Amino acid sequence: MEVQTPPIRDLQTTVDDGENNLRFMKNVSIPLKASKLPIRANVYLPLSDDANAKFPVLCTYGPYGKDIPYATFFAGSFGEVNPEHRSKYSAWETPDPVFWTSRGYAVGTSECFFDVVEWAADQPWSTGKVGLLGISYYAGTQWRVAARRPKGLAAIIPWEGMSDYYRDRCQHGGILSDKFIGVWWNRQVLVNQYGKAGRSQLKFPPDGPGARGQEDTIEGDLPEDVLVANRQDQTVDNATHKYRDEPYYASKEFRPEDIEVPLLSVANWGGILLHLRGNVEGYNHAGSKFKYLRFITGRHDLPFYYKEEAELQQSFLDAFLKGEDRVGWSVPGKVPPVTVTLRKGNVGFNDAEKEKTYPKRQEEAWPIPRTQYTNFYLTADQGLAASKPTATAESKSVSYKALGTLENQQAVQFTSAPFEQETEITGHVTAHLNVSLTPEEAAGDKDIDLFVTLRHLDAESREIFYTGTAGDPVPLCKGWLRVSMRKTHEEHPKHRPYLPYREYFSTDVLPVRGGEVYGVDVEIWPTNVVVDKGNRIVFEVASGDTQGSGIFQHNSPTDRPASKFAGQNHIHFGEGLENYVTLPVIPQK
């Protein structure tokens, strides 16, 4: 159904803000090639005595409302942002207009990204070069639009943002990640819909982000039935659709190989349930001649604004938007493509200054070429052995209750011996498990959901936690698999020994029957840790979310009904039934 709106009004205003040395153009209308939607941008230009001055442009695209101040959207976070990036124009997860206009960039915030990029390149105040810069949603949109190659696009910096809508965000291993989508949709998106009454009066508890204080729709309110018809509800769509070959998910697909512009992909080791995987895989498959991958730590809302990270962003953008390359980004081989932050020692979590003491190291490729993929074998007595257990014909199993939740965790843990020397683990992790289900109900379809976690213990067996997306304590990494989606496509060019490739198509679904043992390979998201001598690693297998999941939980009763999943899950040991987790060990130089 076509979006219905009242007659569109031209309400563009322009203010020269001498205090912040910028020109603020509000509600600039942008014509779209294939839509009658009322699209408006806010444009911020450096003040200049030259009426014909031209500037490279930074664009963002997101759903949170261009006119909601960061200070209103999430006051607690805004209060912790580097003061150089705090202004009355600041918005959540986007470049601050005052900071960037002072460095010679025009900044535009808008929607319908492809048309906006090409529009920005054609404006009289534009040099014709456009860069993309932003966090999370404002990073995820960059991958897709860059693959379409709009005219004028010159460089992108997707900072902690998914590149694979299905695998990174919505369906972890084929399991619906519903809780975050529900909270995000209802607090940050739905309430901000164009034409929704009372947008300016929205209030939420002060303990997290929310669309507080957006201006009411200029053209007036729309009736509820029109609002419903005009939107695609992600809480409904993601619950209704399960497979990548359905039109809903297929419509989100793109070819990262089609991305040609210079790329700086920034991944956060702590983003173990939303952002991390997409930045790594987006980098791996992008077709860009100049592409760089940088691993950082810290909360997802703050490092983007750190002084050293803003300088990094500016040097990259200056190189490709202004032709001012102070670092060598545009010189083949000058800048190593990969920079890794090494999580060494126990500095606590959610402490930015202590995390800045983590050492960094540059690498020539990802995965690191000298990686030694090393199997650690699960044992029936719940150990994690560095050597393959002696073959035995005796069959054993380790069992745990199926259908666990974060509040009612059902898990088993396999713990290594103390490491005999300092050992670095950096890269992709996989696990091979032999599993079965004893169902609670005999009738009906059956399935098994696997939730796996890698944890790090110090010499006193206390877990070492790291900073998660929201500043919460998280383990090293997590992975998931719905056993009916166990089919891998080894013939696919994206299948790698360290990362099994699954299509997640409806045609890939395989049966799961009570009492039958299935050997499965589980993708676990990439990680880094330097394990000190005497420390240990724990591999955890669970039937639901466990500690470190935070808001990114998998609780849908329609996606995980008791009739299909309830019972006892088992991991089997015996002749021909090896269970192991493969860790990417980096040899010491």
Give a quick rundown of the structure.
The protein has 589 residues and is an alpha+beta fold. The chain has helices spanning 70-73, 75-78, 97-101, 113-122, 137-147, 165-170, 178-189, 224-230, 234-240, 247-250, 276-285, 307-322, 352-355, 562-565; strands at residues 13-17, 22-29, 40-46, 55-61, 106-110, 126-135, 153-159, 171-172, 175-176, 263-268, 291-296, 338-341, 360-363, 372-378, 383-385, 396-401, 411-416, 423-439, 449-457, 466-467, 473-474, 477-482, 518-531, 536-542, 567-573, 580-586. The N and C termini lie far apart (61 Å).
CATH architecture of the largest domain: 3-Layer(aba) Sandwich
Domain count: the total is 2
Name the CATH superfamily classification of the largest domain.
Answer: Alpha/Beta hydrolase fold, catalytic domain
| Class based on secondary structure composition and strand pairing | alpha+beta
- How many angstroms separate the termini? 61 Å
Mean pLDDT: 94
Strand content: 25-35%
- Major sheet summary line: 11 strands, mixed
Counted beta strands:
26
Shape: globular
Please work out how many helical segments DSSP would assign. Answer: 14
Using the coordinates above, name the CATH class of the largest domain: Alpha Beta
What is the gyration radius calculated from CA atoms? 25 Å
Which regions are unreliable across 5 or more consecutive residues at pLDDT < 50?
Answer: none
Strand order of the largest sheet: 1-2-3-5-4-6-7-10-11-12-13
